Amino acid sequence: MKKVLFLAVAAMSLSLASCDSKKEDAAEAQGTAIKEAGEAKADAMEEKADAVRDSANKVGEAVGDSADAKDPK
After folding, report:
1. What are the angstrom distances between the C-alpha of 70 and each of 2, 28, 58, 61, 64?
2. What is the DSSP letter of 73?
3. Which of 23, 43, 45 is nearest to 35 (CA)?
């Protein structure tokens, strides 16, 4: 009988411990929102970096082509 009672109390304790509170859910939602905002900002920065890199490559190629055109053959 004691084993059954002990198991029942243990099961109830575990089921209550696994329930999230509204405060915990709100904190998790806030953490998720902050993480997603950071990811969006990082993505935007990567896109800007790609644009700068592409622009620098185009300018470098243009300068190289100009130098090649001036080179007597």
Report:
1. 97, 63, 18, 14, 10
2. -
3. 43
pLDDT in tens, 55-67: 999 999 999 888 8
Question: 6: which 2 tokens?
Answer: 């002990």
Q: Which amino acid is at 58?
A: K
Instruction: Number of helices (H) and strands (E) in the chain: give both, helices first.
Output: 2, 0
Hey, what are 3's tokens?
């084993």
Would the pTM of this model clear 0.85, i.e. be above it? no
Give pLDDT < 70 ranges for the chain: 1, 14-20, 73
Neighbours of 62 (CB within 10 A): 10
Alpha carbon of residue 68 to chain centroid: 44
- CA distances from residue 9 to 3, 4, 5, 17 in whole angstroms, order as listed: 10, 9, 6, 12
